[in-house]
Design goal:
- This protein is α+β, with helices and mostly antiparallel strands.
- The protein is built from 22 helices and 29 strands.
- Helix 16 packs across helix 19 (629-637), helix 16 packs across helix 20 (647-670) and helix 18 (596-616) crosses helix 20.
Length: 802
């Protein structure tokens, strides 16, 4: 069974996708488009001149380059991060507001009753542990940096409170000031840890066909037998067992989408003799973009790259010595516990209480009463329940059991990406490795290079130590408890490998002989294999070569599957069919302008369904993601006995029947094969604004698919996930580095930077990422000076000690 992950997780749909799904079409504004856009333009952030900003100690210079990237120059760290908060809010305040509400469980105030359960789950997931340990985990000065960033956000909110970005007006709300706890939310990283979903899926499959057959249908890597906990009844466990947790993944729950790529080569493989590093982390393709590029310069800071607008610092990019990129590892950071509900003894019983059995005794389920305000309705009183293993996400009253979700997010230091505050200041491999030790969530393949010519990699994250595989739900009776976490020395890593190449693409990254348990589900190796084959070609690479490789659309599954089809067609005498000829002359490139990719994708989809039906029979519906090429190819290359007494003939019949189905379906939709069959005519990336159609951007045709390096997968034939942000870092000359971000740096409709990067992205082109002061000045389009101003009428909150 395939498991494609996003670096948002995997999945995980981004904030704006989730918001769009929650809002639905009826709430998209229907007002006059021109008037709506004019109103939006009247609220655009000021990019030139000067502005007074309460809380600053000295003036800060903000230079926005021609592509909308802010380069922020400050005299102190305090001023730098206060300015970063202000500038991010200038460009993305509405997006940041929704991000905050998602994390705090306050969407229902805006969206109404449809968001209540989602809000309840966000409140269940809130960190409730030791706050001193929480702050200490990210960086010694993390609390001070977050405080300064939040104060910058709040200063901008006060500046525009009476005339905020247009979305606030359309929704009838006002922006609210942040607390320092906002960047500590756990919801943002949850969807990049989908192991609980896999446990539920496997439990359904085991209940349908038994453990032995389930292990054959959905094999693990490394191979591992499924061993359901003795006495645990898996019947009745399904998606509903996760309650609102399943909705926290947006519209992509239980659908594995391709993840991210990064690679780095040493100077022995580059034209310049210095390392080159490439990274394209994948999440939802949304409007506004999930990613936000910024350049932060102050004493102790000079870092540029992409992150998320609601967080201080940079997640992937470089400073003046070290560069870094990331892809999801996919460590198993979740477990589903089935708690046996039992009557409470008289000594602990109280109104509304439940008890559960663990360690041979009945313990009370801990309860927290909370209030969720709901738009258009009275507030709702909700009860949040917790066992020793974590929040109770659902209750099966019929079977007297509750489902609790154990998630590393309850541990200190697990706010997604906030450990970037340490990573941004790494000076060498030793300090980079120390920063990676702080990186707990999401789990990331952090690749590294430096100006001295070193390259490296570490699979960073908080990985629980278990005495069981973690592949199925387990009882909460005390037999299945975590035994701490892997140490930094126990995690896969490499420094200056002999061949001068490091590649990760959500694939199985365990070195030979690696014994620790990380995960059993990885992305198929197609992207990583293709990248490594190119890098190992003996070529001396340039930035331009890496640009082309990031957009490589060679399909390795097509290389394996199409020849099988052509042989079958030859035996049937069908080689002259125009559809067969289209595939026989195809170069296996998933080009947007060709018909063959559309024909291949349609055929592959039908083939997958047929293979699943043969392998799983009536249980095929439980084989959620078992239709991908990594299942199909081995099943057909060495025809399985499951195909019958004459497996080769049955294989040919299967291949041709699925192909005939695909041709009929495409002909009904597009007519006979011709220009209308171009892959990009249906394989498109759309950019709908969640609130108003007036702010939509034009959809663009796309090449590639979910298995190409230019990974462009999604639901149906659309691209819904992929690389919104790409960066290629040249360690011979940082000013020669390049990047992309789609559709633009600004989330404000009407801004010159709202959709300006979409044409570049659609054409596979990049913009320069200037780093030196001279290069920044040469690329500057706007200069804004942020000047200190008294906080009149506002009590200045004390700064946390550094």
């Amino acid at each position: 069974m395939e498991s494609h992950r996003t670096d948002h997780p995997v999945t995980r749909a981004s904030l704006v996708v989730a918001l769009a799904l929650l809002l639905g079409t009826p709430l998209r504004a229907q007002s006059n488009a021109a008037a709506t856009l004019d109103s939006a333009r009247a609220r655009l952030a000021k990019l030139d001149g000067s502005m007074a900003v309460p809380g600053l100690d000295s003036a800060v210079e903000v230079r926005r380059d021609r592509w909308g990237v802010p380069h922020i120059y400050a005299r102190t760290q305090h001023d730098l991060f206060l300015a970063q908060g202000w500038v991010a809010a200038q460009d993305r305040l509405w997006q940041m507001e929704m991000w905050r509400r998602v994390g705090e469980g306050r969407l229902a105030e805006v969206l109404g009753a449809s968001a209540v359960e989602r809000d309840r789950f966000a409140r269940l997931l809130r960190y409730r542990g030791d706050m001193a340990a929480e702050w200490r985990s990210y960086a010694p000065d993390a609390r001070a940096i977050v405080h300064d960033f939040v104060q910058g956000v709040n200063a901008y909110i006060r500046e525009v409170h009476d005339r905020p970005p247009i979305e606030f007006t359309l929704l009838g709300i006002a922006p609210e000031e942040w607390t320092d706890a906002v960047p500590l939310q756990r919801m943002a990283a949850l969807a990049m840890t989908g192991n609980a979903l896999s446990e539920i899926e496997r439990a359904r499959l085991v209940a349908a066909v038994g453990a032995a057959r389930a292990a054959e249908l959905w094999p693990t890597t490394p191979r591992r037998a499924l061993d359901p906990a003795p006495g645990l009844d898996l019947t009745g466990i399904d998606e509903s067992s996760l309650g609102a947790a399943r909705d926290a993944y947006g519209g992509l729950a239980f659908t594995r989408i391709e993840g991210s790529n990064n690679w780095v080569v040493s100077g022995t493989r580059s034209a310049s003799g210095k390392p080159l590093l490439a990274n394209d982390p994948h999440r939802g393709i949304t409007l506004p973009s999930l990613r936000y590029l910024t350049h932060l310069v102050a004493p102790g800071w000079n870092v540029i790259g992409g992150g998320e607008p609601a967080l201080p610092g940079v997640a992937g990019g470089h400073n003046d010595r070290v560069g870094f990129g990331f892809t999801i590892v996919g460590m198993d950071q979740q477990d589903v516990y089935v708690e046996e509900l039992v009557p409470c003894s008289s000594g602990i019983a109280n109104a509304g209480s439940r008890c559960y059995r663990t360690d041979g005794e009945a313990r009370p389920v801990q309860r927290v009463v909370d209030t969720i305000r709901v738009r258009g309705e009275s507030p709702r009183i909700v009860v949040l329940e917790f066992t020793r293993h974590g929040p109770v996400v659902s209750v099966d009253s019929l079977r007297h059991r509750a489902f609790a979700l154990r998630f590393v997010g309850s541990e200190p230091g697990t706010a997604g990406y906030l450990a970037q505050l340490s990573l941004d200041r790494a000076r060498d491999w030793s300090s980079f490795r120390a920063a990676a030790e702080r990186w707990k969530l999401p789990t990331e393949n952090l690749v590294y290079a430096d100006v001295d010519g070193n390259i490296g990699w570490i699979a960073a994250g908080l990985s629980p130590v278990r005495s069981w595989p973690g592949l199925l739900p387990v009882p909460g009776d005390g037999r299945y408890e975590w035994r701490g976490f892997l140490r930094i020395d126990d995690l896969p890593q490499s420094f200056n490998p002999r061949d001068g190449i490091i590649v990760t693409a959500n694939n199985d990254i365990r070195p030979p002989g690696y014994a620790n348990q990380l995960n059993y589900d990885w992305a198929p190796p197609y992207r990583s294999d293709r990248i490594r084959s190119v890098l190992d070609s003996g070529w001396r690479f340039t930035v331009g070569d890496f640009e082309r490789l990031q957009h490589d659309e060679i399909s390795l599954p097509a290389q394996a599957l199409v020849p099988m089809l052509l042989r079958a067609a030859s035996r049937r005498g069908d080689l002259e069919r125009p559809e067969i000829r289209a595939l026989s002359s195809w170069n296996d490139v998933m080009s947007a302008t060709d018909a063959a990719p559309l024909l291949f994708e349609s055929w592959l989809s039908g083939l997958g369904h047929r293979v699943s039906s043969i392998r799983a029979g009536s249980a095929a519906g439980a084989l959620r993601a078992g239709e991908g090429p990594s299942t199909i190819i081995p099943f057909l290359q060495q025809p399985s006995p499951e195909l019958g007494a004459r497996p080769e003939q049955s294989r040919d019949s299967l291949l041709l029947a699925a192909f005939d189905d695909a041709v009929r379906a495409l002909t009904r939709q597009f007519g006979p094969i011709g220009p209308s069959w171009a892959w990009g005519s249906v394989h498109r990336a759309s950019f709908p604004h969640p609130i108003a159609r007036a702010f939509d951007l034009t959809a663009v045709p796309r090449g590639g698919d979910g298995n190409t390096v230019n990974a462009t997968g999604g639901l149906g034939f659309s691209q819904t996930h992929g690389a919104s942000y790409r960066v290629i870092i040249d360690f011979a000359d940082f000013d020669a580095s390049v990047a992309t971000n789609v559709p633009g740096q600004s989330g404000q409709p009407g801004s010159e930077y709202y959709g300006n990067l979409l044409p570049l992205w659609a054409d596979g082109r990049y913009f320069p990422l200037p780093f030196s002061r001279a290069a920044v000045e040469g690329a500057t389009a706007h200069v804004l000076t942020l000047a200190p101003a008294p906080m009149v009428g506002i009590a200045s909150p004390p700064r946390p000690s550094r």
